[in-house]
Amino acid sequence: MITLGIDFGDKRMGVAVCDREERMAVSIGTVEVRGAKDAAEKTAKIAAERGAEKIVVGMPTRAGGYRGERCEKSEVYIGFLKERVSVTVDTMDERFTTVQAHSMLYDAGLGGKEHKKCVDALSAQLILQSYLDQIHQK
Question: What is the distance between the alpha carbons of residues 29 and 114, in angstroms, rounded to a whole number?
């Protein structure tokens, strides 16, 4: 099953996709967006182009486990997205994925503009890979 992974942001969203066997997530880039509605429209278009049967959106839960303002914005985006797609939309706790992505990029020697271009896409890949790992543990 083709699944998209999304790291939603107000200005950019990272996008990842997995193989049909749902074993490996791969980043497919970053998309510039203008808010939740625009992001939902662009996600729906990507999902249709890729033949996605599921979309997993990172839910930015805070370190203490509670939901903050970013979760509320993500829920608005998910609401718009569900109006535009007929596939399952699921969420995955994305706690620390951005920190992990920043660390991985610094370790790879990427900084500045190169780093900024990659971090959201890598975060989407980490979100999707965590989701895939979780469903295969069951």
Answer: 13
Q: Which two tokens stand for residue 135?
A: 């469903």
In a structure prediction context, what are the per-residue pLDDT tens digits for the chain, which is 138 residues long? Answer: 999 999 999 999 999 999 999 999 999 999 999 999 999 999 999 999 999 999 999 998 766 666 777 889 999 999 999 999 999 999 998 766 666 666 766 676 766 666 666 778 889 999 999 999 988 885
0.90 exceeded by the pTM? no
Q: Spell out the residues 6+ positions from residue 15 whose beta carbon is closer than 8 angstroms to its own.
A: 4, 5, 6, 7, 27, 28, 29, 30, 31, 43, 46, 121, 124
Count how many domains the chain has. 1
The β-bridge partners of 15 are 6, 29
Determine the Cα–Cα distance for residues 134 and 4; give it in Å rounded to an integer: 15
Nearest to 4 by CA among 14, 23, 13, 17: 17
CATH number at residue 129: 3.30.420.140
- What pairs with residue 89 in β-bridges? 55
